[in-house]
Every structure is written in C-alpha cells, then in structure tokens.
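Question: Now follow the chain.
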Amino acid sequence: MKNISYFLFFEMIFTIKLNAQHSVIQSIDFDSEGRTVYALTGRYDYSYILRYDNGNLESWNITELFNIPFFWISSTIDKNENIWAFGLNKLFKFDGISWSVFDVPYIGSYITYSHIKEDNYNSIWISAVDECNIQRLNLSDTTWKTYSIYHPNSIYCWAGEIAFEGDSTWICTSAGLTLIYNDSVSIVLDTTNSSIPTQKLSSFHIDSKGNRWLGSYDKGLIKWINDSTFISYNTSNSNLPNNFINAIDEDSKGTLWLATDNGFASFNGDSITSYSYLFGNVYSIPALAVDQYDKVWLGTVMFHGTLFIFDGNSLIGITDIAEEQAQPQQFELYQNYPNPFNPSTKITFAIPLLGGDERGGLVTLKVYDILGNEIATLVNEYKEPGKNTVQFDADKLVSGIYFYRLQSRSFVETKKMLLVR
C-alpha cells in the first residue's frame, strides 16, 4: 500500500472561496443523524462552522453572521442537537433555525486551540490556550462559573482538552492533568507528584476497558497505570510518527486512533501503525474523531482546510478550500502558527502591490524577547508583492513570551508569540 501515490486517495468534492492562507480544523463531532459538524478557521480571515451529510455540505460564516473580527473557532453538539461554537470570548448556538450568541467571561488572548464540550449534567465547558481559566455554562439558567487553575510549578500554563468521567471533569494542561470535582480544583498528575514522564498534556481518553491514556506535547502516548507506573509510546520505541498527540479516539474494536503533528496512527494494544505517509508530507492533524461506522475523521492544518475520512484502506478528502490568488491590498502580519509553539513556528506576512513603479520593497522581520532584546533577524531583504512565510526555530531559547516585528516603508506591526518547553 505504501507504494501507491497518496494522490490516488484524495477525492475533492466541495469548494468554498477564501483567501489564500492556511486553514485549521480543530474540532469534529457527530449528531444523532450521522451528520459531521466541524469548525474551520479559514485562512486567517473567516471562521466557519460546517455540517457534512453524505454529499451535502452546509456552512455558516460566523465572522459575517455576527459582524465580528476573525477568530479561531471550535464546536460541539449537545444532546438536544444544538450546535455550539466558541471563539473570541463568544459562545454561539445554532438551534436548527437560527444562531444566537452569549458573552463568555474572560478567557484570554491565546485561543489558537480551544475545546468545548457538553457534560452529562446540562452544562457546556470551555477551555483555551490561556492562563488556565476554565468556563462552565449551566444551560438551565445560563449562568457561568469560572475555574482558575494555578500551577505553582509552571510559569506558563494553558488548558486543553476536556474529558468527563462520571462526576469528574478532567482538563489537560501544559502543567499536568487537572481534576474538577464538586467544584474543587486539584492537580492530579504532574512531574512533582507522580512519575509521569512529562506534564505537558494535550489529550485524555478512557478506553472501553477502563484504561486511561494521555496524549502529550513532547513524549508521545502515555498509558496511566497508577501514579508510579506509566508506559510511554514515542518515536524512539514505536512507529508513532510524532511525539505531539493532539487527539485520541477509539473504534468499536478497541483500536485507539491518534492525531499527531505529523499525520495519524492507530494503536491496537500491541503496536502502533503510522499512516502519515498517506499525506505525502508533514501535516498536523489537530482534530480526530471515530464515527459509528468506525470511519476515522481527520481535521488538518494546511491542506486548504480539508476534512478527511479514513476507512481503513483509503483516505478521502471531503472539503477543499480553493485559493484566490489576488495580490494583497495592504501590508499584513499574521499570527504565527502554531502558537504556543515548541520548538519552531511559522510566520506569514503580506506585501501589497502599491502601483506605478513601486513593487514590494525592503522588508525586515525580527524577533525580540520580553525585554526588547533582538533575538533573531528572519528577513532583511527586498520582497516582491505577495505572501511570504518564514520559519522561526527557538531550539536554544527558554519558555516565555517573544515578539516579532515586521517593518517596511512606513508600515510597522508587532505581534507576540508563546514558546512553551
């Protein structure tokens, strides 16, 4: 199978016109009718919720519907078939007829990957890349409760995937696994209170046999036996394609499916099988979910925002985002991706066609630490009009906030990014 060109597996069906930038699908869910709902951050300019139903595709442009700026977005479906979406400190609800919006208590600025999920007690939970603030909306009376997770052993902390087990709510964070029980918050697993190989946790799954699995940002897949016993599967001792595990789900046969920063893989209890070769390149898979027919749905970064289905043999692309190749109309500096990052990230900027004899110009892109010291010069040369992407490697830098500044003619813009080790 590996000798077959990966292009043979792709079947593009739908097209939505967006600007030519990167796209991110960061959540996938299914309703009771078998329809797939997913959230698409479209090319750094629009935020979409889409619903796919056996050849039919509905889409809602949340940015245009509510006349608000672009934001990263994630979604879920509740027990009453309502679609919920979260982004930019706003919670959006679609009841099958119309959309409504709720203000969310302060989450923070780093919401590249947010998580939203309904528990068994009529509440919607939200986490985001932030200072570890978790929000819960009681759907009965639409009241909010904020849980602040303080980690004394970590300067920077962000909250990630949410998982439920009975009355327990588990939150994966960059500083360990946190438990919220009876409105009490406790750090259950970190490197100070257990022998877990890392406390940078991204995903959590309890399988059909009751085994607990943790996905990490740097140590791969971890099986939690007890607080002193953990079994790790990583790129050194298995076929895992990447040590960054974005999501974990399970099919009806008990096989675990893993989304990584380099494609996806399966784990059948004995060994890991990597399927990253199907993409023909290095692509991150932020979202993964297994449907009732054991088909694996994959949300990608790049790949023009394509949602893929893997049926065990072939990989089919459901949605293609077409690129409009118009020249940029203004200078623009985009948020780096990924953010937070470790150890590298990509920065994209746009140079407009100014007209006349003025085409492009001298461009500088530099990185600074929080004290204003220059760390690196990424670009210092003449650039033609268009979009450019450069990579910043921070192998020798410590965790913290850094700034990158684009300057050309009278244009200057600075954005911040977060490196977390």
